[in-house]
Amino acid sequence: MRPARVRTAGTAAITLTLVAGLLVSVGAAVTVGPADLSIGTVWAVIGEHLGLAQADVSVLRDHIVWDLRLPRVLAAAAVGAGLAAAGAVMQTVTRNPLADPYLLGVSSGAALGAVLVIVAGIGGGMVAVSGGAFAGALATFAVVVLIAGRRGALSPARVVLTGVAIAQLCAACTSFVIIWVGDPNATQSITFWLSGSLAGATWAKLAWAIPALAAVLLLVLTQARTLNAFAFGEEAAATLGVDVTRTRWLLLIATALLTAVLVAISGAIGFVGLILPHAARFLAGPDHRRLLPVVVPAGAIFLIWVDTAARTVFEPRELPVGVLTALLGVPAFLMLLRRREVRG
Amino acid sequence: MLEITDVSWAVPAARILDHITCTVPAGSLVGLLGPNGSGKTTLIRAVAGLVRPDTGAMTIAGDHIAGLRRLALARRIALLAQHADTDLDLTVRDVVLLGRIPHRRSRWSDTADDHTAVAEALTRVDLAGFADRTWLTLSGGERQRAQLARAFAQEPELLLLDEPTNHLDIGHQLQLLSLVRRAKVTTLAALHDLNLAAMFCDTVVVLHHGRVVATGPPTEVLTSGLLAGVYGVDAEVRVHDGRTVICYRPPS
């Protein structure tokens, strides 16, 4: 039995450690890769670009750090943090421990949008594909909300079932388009994209993702106590003064928008939004005021290192990061389930 | 004091509440009786603001419940449901602190007042020393008492109980209702067990098919005629040690 006071002090320490770990991870992960870089070089380049110091680093190294690796590492951090937070909120709002940020069909819609853009050959390269993914994600989410929220209440069961159905429909349409077109290049890029990858991260995409992440995280943090009220169900929350319908709409829309932005950057990276909230609850307990400050940096660190492994372990091949998150996520999930049973 | 005046609520298939009028005087414990489907739970939910009646008025200390905002209502009315369940690993303190949500001054931190209220509420339900126990390790009776402490932590003017003893053994049923009695909070309690109602309630209101069929002190209301008419049971009502006791006979 962990006394709650110890738990509170412990959580503050965990949060601080994780935030420090996140900073160190960003710096350290940038050094990992085919071109050897020291952590000193990395910080020197970052310092120079932020106008803090003059660095004496070659143009090539500067390019590798600033244009290639740093955006990717930051994108991993943003996507990891965002998916973990969105997953925690989704699990609470739907009262479903298996909920994840893709529950509303956002990822399948994004894949369909991306496929359509690739097949139609609109515009050039990754920017158009990301745009298509974002549009597809929003369209799917809109359809799910229109169907599930028809009577205004947006009941969790309807949301989950509608999300599953629409996701299946999108997946079927995606397969159909891929097979119909039969373009091997399109098929290959889609496969990579469906499994999730951070290879296409750029500063331009981060300029969208980081403000979206910051805004949604701030919103979610102001709702931490309200989220706690859902512990015994929505009727209990309502009798504690929570406007359940409004809260659910607000949080589902905010997390779905964030997820759409993230999916447009990285494709559907599975298991982060499902596992990290459970792991963080295990560390910090179920109170969202302690859980959210732990799950956000934990998600960021987790995805930074998994992505670093994905791009380096099988060099020169790169694994889709979603493959690795699943490989790590499934055993972690089973372990958590087991511990829960032992304790419960 | 709660006043319910001419409240009706219908769903397409049935009239669930049919012109209900009754009163819960300040400081009293009123039992809401009636067979399954008689409208007890719906009436409790209506007073809690969870369903909105079609017609009629409900007032608490003169204020219309329909006109109060959720948060204002949660500071004045607390509900203890039949059964509370969560798969989260909450401590008893976490659970009771939920009752402080309507009183929050900060979106983030718990104040000293909150912690004092939690400690007092736990003492009132004989769970002092349980604050750090986790929900999953509690027995059914302890869980209901923790929820009662959560309700007390809301500092309500009116406590609503929706068949709170349904899943408890007899010892815990008696304990829970005597804790409620001892708290001297104005209470409206939907109850199934008529002997418990006779033992603890100041007055009882009997519902049948959504209508009030009898109101008054349990000794006057709970007669074998009423039990036959409303519940369809053959029972003898006796007075034993100065209390009303209902003895049922098996259906013939």
From TrEMBL, chain A:
<comment type="similarity">
    <text>Belongs to the binding-protein-dependent transport system permease family. FecCD subfamily.</text>
</comment>
<feature type="transmembrane region" description="Helical">
    <location>
        <begin position="319"/>
        <end position="337"/>
    </location>
</feature>
<feature type="transmembrane region" description="Helical">
    <location>
        <begin position="159"/>
        <end position="182"/>
    </location>
</feature>
<keyword id="KW-0813">Transport</keyword>
<feature type="transmembrane region" description="Helical">
    <location>
        <begin position="128"/>
        <end position="147"/>
    </location>
</feature>
<dbReference type="Pfam" id="PF01032">
    <property type="entry name" value="FecCD"/>
</dbReference>
<keyword id="KW-1003">Cell membrane</keyword>
<feature type="transmembrane region" description="Helical">
    <location>
        <begin position="249"/>
        <end position="276"/>
    </location>
</feature>
<feature type="transmembrane region" description="Helical">
    <location>
        <begin position="70"/>
        <end position="90"/>
    </location>
</feature>
<dbReference type="InterPro" id="IPR000522">
    <property type="entry name" value="ABC_transptr_permease_BtuC"/>
</dbReference>
<feature type="transmembrane region" description="Helical">
    <location>
        <begin position="102"/>
        <end position="122"/>
    </location>
</feature>
<keyword id="KW-1133">Transmembrane helix</keyword>
<protein>
    <submittedName>
        <fullName>Iron chelate uptake ABC transporter family permease subunit</fullName>
    </submittedName>
</protein>
<feature type="transmembrane region" description="Helical">
    <location>
        <begin position="202"/>
        <end position="221"/>
    </location>
</feature>
<keyword id="KW-0472">Membrane</keyword>
<dbReference type="InterPro" id="IPR037294">
    <property type="entry name" value="ABC_BtuC-like"/>
</dbReference>
<keyword id="KW-0812">Transmembrane</keyword>
TrEMBL record, chain B:
<dbReference type="Pfam" id="PF00005">
    <property type="entry name" value="ABC_tran"/>
</dbReference>
<protein>
    <submittedName>
        <fullName>ABC transporter ATP-binding protein</fullName>
    </submittedName>
</protein>
<dbReference type="InterPro" id="IPR003593">
    <property type="entry name" value="AAA+_ATPase"/>
</dbReference>
<keyword id="KW-0067">ATP-binding</keyword>
<dbReference type="GO" id="GO:0005524">
    <property type="term" value="F:ATP binding"/>
</dbReference>
<dbReference type="InterPro" id="IPR017871">
    <property type="entry name" value="ABC_transporter-like_CS"/>
</dbReference>
<dbReference type="InterPro" id="IPR027417">
    <property type="entry name" value="P-loop_NTPase"/>
</dbReference>
<keyword id="KW-0547">Nucleotide-binding</keyword>
<feature type="domain" description="ABC transporter">
    <location>
        <begin position="2"/>
        <end position="234"/>
    </location>
</feature>
<dbReference type="InterPro" id="IPR003439">
    <property type="entry name" value="ABC_transporter-like_ATP-bd"/>
</dbReference>
